Amino acid sequence: MIYHFRITSPESKKFHLEVELDGEHTFFNFHTLIQKSIGFESYQLASFFIHDQNGRNQKEISLLNTGFYGGSYLIMQKTCLTDVIELKPQQLFYTYDFISDRSLNIELTGIVMERNLNEPVVLLKQGDAPVQVYEEDSYIPESAKFQEEEVLMDFGIVDDYNELYGEMEDF
User: Fold this and answer.
1) Is residue 102 part of a domain?
2) Domains: count for the chain
3) What is the pLDDT of residues 20-47, one digit of tens each?
4) Which residues 6+ apart lie within 8 Å of 22 measured at CB?
């Protein structure tokens, strides 16, 4: 059985990725396919979230077993697509930046029952994918940058300080 998925990003409207995976492939295979095809770094944590018909998180398939709350968790390396995906259309989210709560939208668009697939395949890639992690400077709003510059300018230069208070000695 082959699953056909369409992957889009709410941040980059022109980004579009279509992939096919066999039902026996794991979510780790899916994760690796996404990472490689969009050029993401593999050291970042990620999870798949499967939603019910009302749009609520139904299941999480995590890269790591966190063991929180003592419950059982689905792990990407051990969970096959057929274990979790049940019906079409199925909505999934691939969260790749937990700090900024950024995800890719994944939609199951088709299932082919008669065939099998040895390796996951990228069928189509259009547009630029979103960046995986924001730069540190992007978290600082412009207004905060200007306030910081004003504060620094209020203190004057080091020569003025030395003129008023003298040189500081090293201990």
Assistant:
1) yes
2) 1
3) 999 999 999 999 999 999 988 877 889 9
4) 1, 2, 3, 81, 116, 117, 118, 120
